[in-house]
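A quick aside before the break. I want you to see a complete sequence-to-structure record at least once, exactly as it would be stored in a machine-readable document. Don't worry about memorizing anything.
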Amino acid sequence: MDKFDKKIVQKLERDSRISYSKLADDIGLSKTPCWQRVKHLEATGVILSYTTELDYEKLGFEINAVVFVVIDFEKSEQFETSVQSHRSIIRCAAVTGDYDYLLEVVAKNMREFDNLLRKELSRLPGVQRFNTSLSTREVKQSFVISDLL
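That is the input. The structure line, written in tokens, reads:
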């Protein structure tokens, strides 16, 4: 990645709805080379997608929690497949340390959260045990990784 690619990534990460004309002006290229660079960044997997950041609470999800999970590693593939399609799991990462996975989940209320833990997460393939922590408030929700380039 050269300086133009880095500038493109930084601009798009902050505003993925920016027009190619504005993006090109901001980074000092003409529109067509800028567009070609964006397409190359997409094709090479640097840019994975363009998303919308949502406020979970305003959408009715009062509960946001982190669930640390220990699994039977013989069932790790089935666990990961199940996690991919589970509607309440918004993030999953394999981690090191005392747990095998970190999940971020949302629920509309405590009753739904209890049901999620008891009847759904506990029954995912290979789950041996888990530990949960509720989020009390957001301190920082987003980050700009391209600032680290």
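Two observations worth writing down. The first helix runs from residue 3 to 14. The chain has two domains: 3-43, 57-134. We'll return to this after the break.
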